[in-house]
């Protein structure tokens, strides 16, 4: 079942009334679609805010930091992903800097996998391989330590948002260059208007909520 969930629900009111003015800033109404009727999805979508014109004019920025202020909703997101991947024989969770570093490690620990950070340039001290890519608001590069992933290891890639799919494509290329087998990519939020799934072709991408704005 596809459930339409409005982010103007009760739990968003909690965010709107938060004592920190920064957290109350520019909360926009978002319509999101959950992939099934799991009540945890409603809490997750209600706790994510959209900040207009960040980091550039015209960008509707999906901000997961407000989800982190709601431990129950945050845990719900982690639990859904752990349940999905715990019996898939995954030995590597690769998290994309920066927001994949928030969601990747608890999933890796829960499913007994190692965590591999995919970092922005000049952050990793050892030998690295690199992939450049285009974003909705610029271009960037991801790097991974040589030796972090072994040939044939089954990998789950984690990030917060998939928009154009450029970041996930770069991550998949890095992992496949060293012989990793990317089982799936998982993100909390999908922005379907950027058609990231088209760019990702046959690679499966799982998103908890799809934002229609
Ligand atoms: O599907 P795409 O069009 O590639 O966009 C998605 C990426 O954009 C954001 O990261 P950002 O590059 O803003 O980096 P940050 O997390 O370091 O701020 C987001 O966290 C994803 O990694
Ligand atoms: N609109 C958006 N919000 C948050 N992260 C993003 N990454 C690319 N586009 C984004």
TrEMBL record:
Keywords: Cytoplasm, Glycosyltransferase, Purine salvage, Transferase. One of its GO terms (biological process) is adenine salvage. It is found in: Cytoplasm. Its EC number is 2.4.2.7. Residues 65-209 form the Phosphoribosyltransferase domain. GO terms for molecular function: adenine phosphoribosyltransferase activity. It catalyses: AMP + diphosphate = 5-phospho-alpha-D-ribose 1-diphosphate + adenine. One of its GO terms (cellular component) is cytosol. Homodimer. Belongs to the purine/pyrimidine phosphoribosyltransferase family. NCBIfam families: apt, PRK02304.1-3, PRK02304.1-5. This is adenine phosphoribosyltransferase. It comes from Zostera marina (Eelgrass). The lineage of its organism: Eukaryota, Viridiplantae, Streptophyta, Embryophyta, Tracheophyta.
